[in-house]
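Aim 2 progress update. The chain analyzed this quarter is reproduced below.
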Amino acid sequence: MMIRRHSCNPLVLTALAAVLFAAGPRPARAHLDVSAPTDAQVQALGAWYEQHVPARFRAREAVDVSALTDREMTAYLRGGDDADAAASRADDGDGDIDGVFEDGPPRITLRLPASGEPDMFTFAHEYGHYVWFALLNKGDRRRYEVIYNKQRAGHHLVTRYAETELEEGFAEAFSFFVNQPPLLAHRDPLSYQFLAQWGVDAHSK
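Predicted structure tokens:
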């Protein structure tokens, strides 16, 4: 889910980590700032990012990633406190939102499931929004829009949710590209080819 806003409510979390990496010839300055209730959750998100996101798709600036409890996430979405969230959750549908991306500055907020283990499909989907806005240029987005419209018309997108709009469709495709690439290649081969080819030549230079 994509939300365009430029201010975030402060949240008290118990762990903070910076996941640093080298991005080709560029200095290793870009990173994820990951926060979650436990160190294990922080480490899981950082390790997954390092292992699954190709170097050409990695962040070129600091990206904040916050994994919240169910109550914290509902309160965050409402912009209020826990009491407000508990009183209104049944009415507003906020409990159905498991992830949010905000683009100013880039921030990903995730709802932790009951198991306490971060949902990497949701993480990848929200990170896909960052890729769309921060890494792809206008030409890339126009090219993908042609692919998206063709695949949606033919009912060849990777999930039904991908059919809701262009940006969500790209984020869904990206999530499957890094989590289950064979399934994306089977269901939506054109999106798979776009992601498999994007940035390869430039990154190899």
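The first strand starts at residue 2 and ends at 3. The longest helix spans residues 120-135. These observations will guide the mutagenesis experiments scheduled for the next reporting period.
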